[in-house]
Amino acid sequence: MQDFQWMLEYGINRFGSLAALEARLPHPATAAQLMAVSDDRYLSLMALRVFRAGLRHSVVDAKWPNFEEVFWQFDPDKVVLMSAEHIERLMQDTRIIRHLGKLKSVPRNAQMLLDVRQEHGSFGAFIAQWPVDDIVGLWRYLAKQGYQLGGLSAPRFLRMAGKDTFVLSNDVVAALVAQDIVTKNPTSQRDLAAVQDAFNVWHQQSGRPLCQLSMLLALTVNH
User: Cβ of 211: how many Cβ atoms within 10 Å?
Assistant: First the structure.
């Protein structure tokens, strides 16, 4: 596989200068910033990611104030008490997107947040302390303990929340295949471990966060 310097030089060539490239690179939140976010905001973001999956983001975002209202500002202590009958009533509410599976995910993910809070104090503290050299382990935890957080939903939620992570976009996957790190879209634990190892090497070489490495890697794909 290519080293970080190759990746950086490729990005510089794409944008014309290091300064222009740096201006485009994302920055993750600090541990303190992650810990400062309340659990209701994490639940709202989690639900937003679930509803955005497979739908036009602008449509979901336009209706999100209504979601905040019907889910009591996503207070997990209240949302977790929602009954199946309550969810069924929400299926008649034209102010929101009426998708039964996605609606059911909200109280289930509220329970996950409450379980995490009981053990770690807050969801923000939990994700803040999770080591980035095993970020795929956090994806796996969210997919297993949460609801409708499999596939790209967990990493995209984490990216929305500011937690440092790479995202297996089409371009990132194409670059990983081109560098013989994987042979196809990595979904098995073995392939995900190989991808994590590659990002760990680039992180050690550069000191840069995973989100920047992810973008730099995507830039190496020609369209």
Answer: 21
pTM for the structure as a whole = 0.94
Structural domains of the chain, with CATH: 4-28+166-219 (no CATH), 32-161 (1.10.340.30)
The string of pLDDT tens digits covering residues 105-132 is 999 999 999 999 999 999 999 999 999 9
Closest CA to 157 of 186, 129, 135, 173: 135
CA distances from 151 to 11, 102, 142 (A): 27, 15, 10
* CB 1 within 8 Å of CB 181: yes
pLDDT tens, position by position, 65-114: 999 999 999 999 999 999 999 999 999 999 999 999 999 999 999 999 99
60: left (phi over 0), alpha (psi -120 to 50) or beta: alpha
Task: State the distance between the two ends of the chain, measured CA to CA, in whole angstroms.
Answer: 21
